[in-house]
Specification:
With 415 residues, this protein is mainly α. The chain has helices at residues 13-22, 24-30, 32-53, 62-79, 84-91, 95-110, 113-139, 163-179, 186-205, 209-225, 230-250, 252-271, 280-295, 306-309, 329-364, 373-386, 398-411. The protein is 69% helix and 0% strand.
């Protein structure tokens, strides 16, 4: 039976706050405004609550120290940039992500029901997205009438092609919460693994190749190191791949998205005798970012300013050097926050690798577990967020960082 710790200062209002926190899961589907508003309000409330109760010890943990250090570097970089106000809009209020992660962590200690709230919020949201996503794939329109992009299922995200990113980043949290649920019935277990198959395929149908790569990385990691449901997750992966292969061979748009375009990129790299990173466009972003880094290697050009600097002939390189961001966290930080900002993210990645290696050593040498199955699931989600060799979104994007803060809040607790 799972036990939870309680505090004598427990406040019944935390139950309401826990419900609001769980509402973030469906609100992220509606767009950035409501989800960002919710996180901002909850973070402000939590700061007020902590200072009112004088609970200052909660700030004393290594994760928060690391986050505050990164936040201060981003602010300093913004203040030294050429577009101070624009850059500060991204860096100054970034702290709410760290405060929100602390809030989740605090609530887990003080109201065990938050685990149920998030579990059911994830289940319901995933179920709705599955229904709408498959409806869009087979009919060409989602339930609200929004048309499908060629080879890309977007569901309620509409023109924001981030369905796969949303599912793959929250999927490990859903699995983690499922693992720790006591007294699971056969119906719940069977239904969950059917849902896993449907989610795996839907991530593929989203056409987001990076998200599909993340799915495979997190799944392999979980299968290798988890003790419960290892065989079941492997069977889910095999079933999903069987259906994915069938879909790919019978859907030209999907085939072109995953097979033809990849072959074209490989051919492009051979034809001009150069090494392209993922695609010619992403190669241009990376090379342009590197040139920006070389110009300001310490603190960079300022958070979120790649979009303004990429067209400068001093930095622009390749066929398509410009975008709102360079589509990789690490090259973005090199360009926008320099080596100092980069080292914070790289250090966090190395720390997670250390946890993984420590677990492997303890598991195979000493025959005991360093990380619980719950933590392994969450670590898989954090690792794909920080995975360096792939494309991803803007590190200062509210949507991505709220997902990351949410996972961090859950990960740092042993349940």
């Amino acid at each position: 039976m799972i036990t939870f710790s309680y505090n004598k200062d427990y406040n019944p209002s935390l139950k309401i706050i826990s419900i609001f926190c769980a509402c973030l899961v469906p609100l992220l589907v509606t767009g950035p405004f409501l989800s960002d508003l919710l996180v901002s309000v909850l973070s402000l409330w939590f700061l007020y609550y902590l200072f009112k109760k004088k609970f200052y010890n909660i700030f004393r943990n290594s994760y928060f120290y690391l986050f505050i250090g990164f936040w201060l570097v981003c602010i300093l970089s913004s203040l030294l940039s050429e577009k101070i106000l624009f850059s500060l809009k991204s860096s100054l209020f970034y702290i709410r992500i760290g405060i929100f992660a602390l809030l989740i962590s605090y609530l887990i200690d003080h109201n065990k029901k938050i685990l149920d709230y998030f579990y059911y919020a994830l289940l319901i949201t995933f179920f709705v997205l599955i229904i709408d996503g498959y409806f869009q794939y087979f009919s060409g329109f989602n339930i609200s009438g929004y048309p499908m992009f060629p080879g890309r299922v977007s569901s309620f995200f509409k023109d924001k092609l981030i369905l796969g990113s949303y599912l793959v980043r929250l999927f490990p949290l859903l699995f983690a919460l499922f693992v720790i649920r006591p007294n699971k019935h056969l119906f719940e277990k069977s239904g969950m693994f059917i849902l896993f198959i449907l989610v795996d395929i839907l991530i593929f149908l989203s056409g987001e190749r990076a998200s599909f790569l993340f799915l495979n990385l997190s799944t392999i990691f979980i299968i290798c190191f988890i003790s419960q449901y290892k065989l079941a997750r492997l069977l889910v992966l095999i079933c999903a791949y069987f259906l994915i292969t069938f879909i790919t061979l019978n859907d030209k748009q999907i085939y072109d998205r995953y097979i033809t375009s990849v072959n074209q990129n490989l051919h492009f790299g051979k034809s001009d005798s150069s090494l392209n990173i993922f695609s010619p466009a992403h190669d241009s972003f990376a090379r342009t970012s590197w040139n920006m880094f070389l110009d300001k290697p310490i603190l960079g050009h300022g958070p979120n300013l790649f979009r303004f600097k990429c067209s400068n002939p001093l930095y622009a390189e390749g066929s398509s050097p410009c975008n709102t961001h360079p589509h990789n966290f690490y090259v973005q930080l090199l360009a926008e926050t320099g080596i100092v900002g980069f080292l914070f993210l790289a250090g966090l990645l190395l720390f997670f690798f250390y946890l993984m290696i420590k677990h492997i050593f303890e598991y195979f040498i000493r025959k005991k577990k360093f990380l619980s199955d719950y933590q392994i699931c969450l670590l898989s989600g954090l690792l794909i967020t920080l995975w360096p060799v792939t494309t991803n979104g803007n590190i200062f994007n509210n949507h991505l960082m709220m997902l990351y803060g949410l996972q961090m809040g859950f990960f740092r607790k042993k349940i």
